[in-house]
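Recall the central idea of this unit: under ordinary conditions, the amino acid sequence of a chain determines the structure it adopts. In this exercise we apply that idea directly, starting from the sequence alone.
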Amino acid sequence: MLSEQNVRQDSLQAWLLAARPKTLSGAAVPVMIGVALAFVDAQEYGDDVFSWTAAALCLLFAFIMQIDANFVNDFFDYAKGNDDSASRLGPLRACTQGWVKTDSMKQAIASTTVLACLVGLPLVYYGGLEMILVGLLCVVFCFLYTTHLSYMGLGDVLVLVFFGIVPVCCTYYIQLHTLTWQVFVASIACGLVIDGLLIVNNYRDRYNDERDGKMTLVVRIGSEAAEWLYLILGMVACLLGVVFWLNGHVLAFVLPLIYLLMHIYTWLKLKRINFGRQLNECLGETARNMFVYGLTVALGLLLV
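Accordingly, the structure predicted from this sequence is:
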């Protein structure tokens, strides 16, 4: 575990804290599911259809874009004055704490954005020129989320699109150059699961967000409705897993029920804690739970 005590400015430790490695599970899960779906369906076309190189590039692109988004969020929230240490309930942020100089963060944002584009460029070879448009949209909305859309309550929509539909469907499409309705449904389920992480984050920060004029979905619907929404997201995601069963992969429907039990346990804890820094426990558990979801879906698809 990274310590937040005595962090030297612009040190490796500072940059690791700024990168927020715990959030990388949110980038890994949709690619994991997309790869598993493509690998299983590729067997119908022959062993030489599936490319592990393309799969690795998808995962690496997702990781770098997630780190880029974290850097963007860190810098712009600091610039807007929304990361006041005294009232902050979530993990401390690098720019606000002075762990990373603002000029250094600007350079890091530019570097990770360029690096993500360079890593994603070879995917054009596997998926076609349309991958350039997908990559550009990922970069544009990476910035728009923190600077504008999260203040309008559209963060949950972006999670559904860019942590569900886009990565799952594109990972599959890059391999097989087609899409099925089952893959699309699976991408929706994945987005719902990962949106639970944003719900917890915004539930914890609801009073600070309302004060700062950040009208997240949680602020708009209220804390009680947000609690129920958190539970429903996980339940609907597992219910949508019936698509795997209908496609002959019963385990891909059954195994994620492990996730659902963990999700319900975290929901009960969320309701009990209600407010304060202790909700960070629920944030960590939600990140763990969604990784379990991705792992159980992938295993259920691969174990025939």
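The first helix runs from residue 12 to 19.
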